[in-house]
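[09:14] KT: can someone run the structure on this one? pasting the chain below
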Amino acid sequence: MKELGVSITLRQLLTSVAYLEHEDDPPTGFWAFIRNPFAYVFRTLALRAKGQVDASGMKCLNLDELDRHGAVEHDVSMSRRDFAQGDNHSKQEDLVEDMLASARDGECLTVDDWAKFRIQRIEQQKRDNAQLEFGSVQDSLGLAETALLQKTFGDSSAGWSVPVSYMAAIFREERLPIEEGWKKRWWWPVGIIELTAAAQAFKKVVGSIQPKASS
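[09:31] RB: done, structure tokens below
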């Protein structure tokens, strides 16, 4: 994530969380928090299998653990179906195209465009998945993911709008949009405080649009 312009603090946080041992039914309560506050707070995002190490005894992750359901992977993804629909890890072309088509001017995805697409995906999965798992954790992850795209690939002088060509490179071709002219932020990397603030701001935009979309 260094090449995306993400701060070392945020990178270390995400790495530390991913390497926590995953438990299907993690302990809760006061004493669980006292024993390990960090693991308690981020327990739902842990990816590593219990006791998993490599040949040298170092903690390690398997690639298939990156889409462990209920951790980083969650229902109402931008470009994947839900876990209960049978394939929650393969890119779905129709969802990618829906995302790109959300840009009203065809050129850039504004904050409002992202918000309307998010509402569209939530409503779509409510219709299509009777076993939808969508609570505050999944909502927060989705908001943070969009905020990260805005802050990493967006234009600060244009309200953090993101060029459609950048998203096409990332989601269609699964590569960084270097050929399209993107350069990582050099003046100030994306950090925890900025990302959190951006996610909260995006949540407000979604909330302001949602009643109109539902009416």
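[09:33] KT: thanks! The chain is about 45% helix and 0% strand.
[09:34] RB: yep, looked fine to me
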